[in-house]
Amino acid sequence: MEKEDNNIILVNKESDVVKYETENIKNLIYTIRGKQVMLDSDVANLYHCETKYINRVVKRNIERFPKEFCFQLEQKEFQNLRCQFVTSSFEKQNYGGRRYMPYVFTEQGIAMLSALLKSDIAVNVSISIMKAFIEMRKFIITNGQFFQEINNIKDQLLEHDKKFDEVFDELQRKQESECRQSIFFDGQIYDAYILVIDIIKKAKQKVLIIDNYIDDSILKMLSKKNKNVKVVILTSQNSNLNKLDINKFNKQYPTLKVAMTNKFHDRFIVIDNKELYHIGASLKDLGKKCFAISKIDDIEYIKKLKEAI
Fold it and tell me: pLDDT averaged over the chain?
């Protein structure tokens, strides 16, 4: 009998005795739940039998296989193994088609399994597997400090990434919440539209809009406002906003009030009587020509603006 698989299993043709290279068996040993283990399918492959036969032996002698000897993987553990070895025997042996999560054997579990199988192949294979476990244990002990340093570096990198994300999120939040000044060029209709909506959404109580040439496009923006926020629009007779539009809006997004005035030339948005924005173009013409939106921080201007109304 001659057989060769992904881990190079060699067969002596004359004696029909299977010989395994320790280095190749070591490639089948994984660390799960802090224990060195082998998958039931790999064990079955080494013993030249089907996986279901191995698991049948375990179930019939379950009292001899405590969790220290054999345990079943959880879905997440199995998926982690598949991700780590996506190009290895995992993919080639079609582990993904299993109907149940695989079992894994520790070194003690392999020894117990060998005693139950009672065959020459099982004895020879078990000896090779024991040697591989011993070699792996020596390797881990010898390089334990190195592995610990790597884990420490990983932890530090994760911590740095977390802090970086927090700083980035905070900067992003401040950038989004504090619109100081933005310039929009011809064609930036959507960008300007979004910025005005962001300003409107900042209001918790009231929005005051002053614009002489407003139309029903403002209603689409105001539909994004927070619930129960009152809106007052001061506009001129040149406005194209009619009473029917206002009534329909109020039925779904109360409360909107519109008043006529000819006292203003420029456009303004006041948020909660605290924040004042100067708009360089009418809200109906956002992005059609180059204009700017600027925040005016001086609270005195808000007071003077209210006095002028």
Answer: 81
Picking from 130, 147, 164, the residue at the C-terminal end of a domain is 147
Domain that holds residue 41: 9-147
The structural domain count of the chain equals 2
Asked whether residue 6 carries a pLDDT value surpassing 60, the answer given is no
Q: What is the distance between the alpha carbons of residues 208 and 309, in angstroms, rounded to a whole number?
A: 11
Mean pLDDT check: name the lowest of 46-60, 130-144, 291-305. Answer: 130-144
Say which CATH number the domain at 282 has.
3.30.870.10
Is pLDDT larger for residue 5 or for residue 51? Answer: 51
pTM over 0.70: no
